[in-house]
Each structure stands twice: as C-alpha cells, then as structure tokens.
Amino acid sequence: MSALPACPKCQSTYTYEDGALLICPECGHEWSAQGSEPAPANEARVVKDAVGNVLQDGDTITVVKDLKIRGSSLVVKVGTRVKNIRLTDGDHDIDCKIDGIGAMGLKSEFVKKV
C-alpha cells in the first residue's frame, strides 16, 4: 500500500506522484505534494476589458482602437459594437461575430464593455 494521500476531490486512493505533483488517475485532479494547492485548471479565469471591467459571456462590447485584419484589407473601426461575445482561452480572449466582417477573435485589451 502506498503512503500517498487520497485525492482531495474524489477521495480516490489510486493517486501517484509525478515530480512535485500528486495526480489522481480517476478524476484527473492535480495538487502539490507540499500541501499548497494550485488553482484548479477548470476554474473560470477573469477576463477584463481595456478599462478594467470584468467581461462575461453574452456581454456587448465596443472596440476602442482601429484593428486591421491580417490577410485582408478590412478594418474594424473604433466604436464598432459587438453583441453576444463568447470568452475563450488563448491569446485572443473573445470570440465574436462582427457585422460585415464575420467571425473573429479579439483581444480583451482592445475592447470596452458597454
């Protein structure tokens, strides 16, 4: 029997050690062997706009800077309103559909919540 602690999330006894982390093969939970628990990967991260307002799925935003679209001669102008945004992970925080342009990803630093 191993001396490793049970998983704090699902109480499984089949935990194993991987470097400095303990991992549960049943639920996939990872935590530090020293007892200080890292933030779970499935927690929603906070995305803020250019002025510090917290953005959420479904918000309406306004573009605060002219944005040239790579590979195209189109430009998203300052003041363009975008409705019903969807937050994503990655370099571009926001997935949206802009009228006249189509679906695209935006960075939260170039928008303001309405």
TrEMBL record:
Protein YjdM C-terminal domain boundaries: 47-114
Segments forming domain Protein YjdM N-terminal: 4-32
Superkingdom of the source species: Bacteria
A Pfam family the protein falls into: YjdM
Gene3D superfamilies per the UniProt record, alphabetical: 2.20.25.10, SH3 Domains (2.30.30.40)
Entry's family note: Belongs to the YjdM family.
Name of the protein: Alkylphosphonate utilization protein
Lineage of source species: Bacteria, Pseudomonadati, Pseudomonadota, Betaproteobacteria, Burkholderiales
